[in-house]
Amino acid sequence: MKPMLRDAYSAGIANGDSSTERARLRALEKWADPTSRALIEGLAIQTPWHCLEIGAGTGSLSHWLAERCPRGRVVTADMTADTGPGNLESWGSRVPNLEVARIDLMKDDFPAGTFDLIHARLVLAHLPERDAILQRAVQWLKPDGAILVEDAYILPRDDWARDELTDVHHAFLDVLAAQGFDGRWIRRLPSKLANLGIVDLQVVATPVTFGIGDRIEESWSIGFEQFLPRFLRTGVLTLKQIMAYQNLPRTEAIYMPWLLVSVSGRRPDSERANS
C-alpha cells in the first residue's frame, strides 16, 4: 500500500531516516505517555476493547494498549511501520493481539463500527488531510466508542521576550507550516468533533515548558541537532543566530512555547439513547 505523506516525513524537518530519530521519539514518548495513559484510563478502557492507534512513534503506547486489552486487539496504523525508526514490526511479532499496519488512511478503510477506541497523538496537525481523516475515523468507532486526539497548540510568538528564542522557533515553525502543519488546528477540534456527532467532549491542556528539566527537553534537544543542517542549508537561520540560542543562560531560557491539547469524546449509542 502507498504510504500517506511518506515524503513529508522522510525528507522533512523531522527526518524519519535520521540515525537519532528513534531516540527523539522515545524521549517524546517518555514525556507524553503518562498523560495519554491517564486520559485513556479515564475513558473506562476495557480488556476486550479493539483499539486503533494512528501514528505510533516507536510503539510504546500501542504496546501498552495491547497489554491493557488482552482480550481485544490493537491496530497500529503508521505510514512508516516497516521502514521508520520505530521498529514497529518487531512489536507486532512479539505481541499476539497487536497488528502493525502500513496503510494510507485516505485510501484504505476500516469497516464502520470497528473500534472501541481511536487514539492519535501529535500526528493529525501535520497532515493536510486531517479533517477528512477525522471524519472517517469517527465512522470507524463502535456505538459508545471513544476517540482521543492530542496535538500541539502553538502559543503566540510575540509572547517570547528573547530574540534568540523567537529566531529559532519561528524558523522551526515556518518550516513545519510549509510541510502542512497547522499549530492551531487542535483549538478547533472540539467543535469539529461535535459537528461529527461526538458527545461527552472533554479538553485537557498540558503545558510544554522548556528550561526546567522536563523530559520534553531531551526530545527537542535531539530534534534541534537534526534540524540544524536544514536551517543552515536553506538560510532560514544563520550560524550566529543558532549560536546565540545555544549560548543562552539557563535562567533566561525558561519558556513555554506550546501546549499539548487532548480532546476526547464518544460516539453516542443510538439504541441506548432511545431506550
Automatic annotation (TrEMBL):
Domain of life: Bacteria
Record's keyword terms, sorted: Methyltransferase, Transferase
Pfam short name (any one): Methyltransf_12
One of the record's GO molecular function terms: methyltransferase activity
GO biological process: methylation
Domain Methyltransferase type: 52-146
InterPro entries found in the cross-reference section: Methyltransf_12, SAM-dependent_MTases_sf
Keyword Signal set for record: no
Protein name (Swiss-Prot/TrEMBL): Methyltransferase domain-containing protein
Organism encoding this protein: Pendulispora rubella
